[in-house]
Amino acid sequence: MKRRTAEPYKIKSVETLSMLSYDERHESLARAGYNTFLIDSDDVYIDLLTDSGTTAMSDAQWGALMTGDEAYAGSKSWKRLEQAVKDVYGYNYVLPTHQGRGAENILSQLKIKDGDYVPGNMYFTTTRAHQEMNGATFVDIIIDEAHDPSIDLPFKGNVDLKKLQALIDKVGAEKIPYVCLAVTVNLAGGQPVSMRNMKDVYELCQSYSIDVMFDATRCVENAYFIKDREEGYANQTVAAILKEMLSYSDGCTMSGKKDCLVNIGGFLAMNDEDLYIRSRELVVVYEGMPSYGGMSGRDMEAMAIGIREAVDDHYIEHRIAQVRHLGQQLLDAGIPIVKPIGGHAVFLDARAFLPHLSQEEFPAQSLAAALYLDSGVRSMERGIISAGRDIKTGEHNRPNLELVRLTIPRRVYTNNHMDVVVDSILALYEKRDWISGLKMVYEPPTLRFFNARFEPLCETGELIAEKNKAKQIS
Ligand code: F0G
Fold this sequence. Notes:
The protein is of the alpha/beta class.
């Protein structure tokens, strides 16, 4: 018999959850323009909008808050954070930023020239926005299989080296300031990159003097997948695997709000001293002194501890197992989800869930809204709305993946909460034909998914109603 495991922590403080009625949720959803980003968190029962900044801190982290050194310059809390990054990640130089996109801003400004190309293994919204705002064209070099939610591969975040080579041949290495390698790949479904692939990308780039910058946001989760799936790593610690991974890069941007187990913070790290000196100048302009970079001393204390806690093998094993606990039940029930189950989230395949809706009827946005209506579970669209418009043509970008992300905050919910989510999705699947599409009634110019507003397409104005089915059939 396979023995069950449980959370590797016990609960010291609890937060009561709101449990609204169907009618109250209906009102809340309409107020939010059917956009889950705009729902008040007070109206949410189980919040799977994001794993970003939603972590529960440990007692050690809460205790350390009191020791925060709030000096404007030379804070000892910064020294502790800097040391933690050097010890766990192994880079020579570190600069603090208020969160991941602060680091992306500085890196993009310093490395990119107008007309450059930045290859990456699928885009992330803020990362690509910074690259484009600095004049670069983003080029997707992830393996083709990553765009197909039904293909089950152990390392679906891998770079297709032929695509990278073809880009170098086409535009020339001098037009490629760096390769941006995300480990894991958020929008592909939290899919990892193999150690072999990281090494191959690094070696190819070195031969052309192109830097490799990791988006290390969920790097510990990637390290665990290597331990679990890649030959030769089963007996190594996640901490050792992580160090090896990062040795195949020249630096990284980091959102501390994920794998550093804190609610705010980030950093930019690198091995090149010249880049460090130039980055320090920009940190002062955009973030604050290089000894706090937009974080308070107490934030830095919490992050220094979180960085070490995250590489505890029991913590990360349970983290991935909890995501699997949710995803496996959905798979077993025949619900279309991205395969294999990723590191931070389970992604519903909205095209397969709602095949009666075209991409212009925003199936993922509609499904996220319907899930909230059914059970108060908040999720996020990751499809055509998130992909935005082509900066040159103004047309919608049309990603193959039209997904609803159920993102699991770290150390926050129990597996019982995951079971409640499963039940709601199964109930929705039963009545999926009744779910209407949406029309966008307000579209902001940048990162539109945050603030866009929608209305149900169905004449009755109901998102889930038997009428909708009749409309589709007629
Ligand atoms: N890179 C990746 C892969 C991310 O997932 C995020 C944030 C960032 C960079 C930016 O970091 O938020 O600290 O500025 N992802 C969040 C999410 C917002 O919900 O997936 P940030």
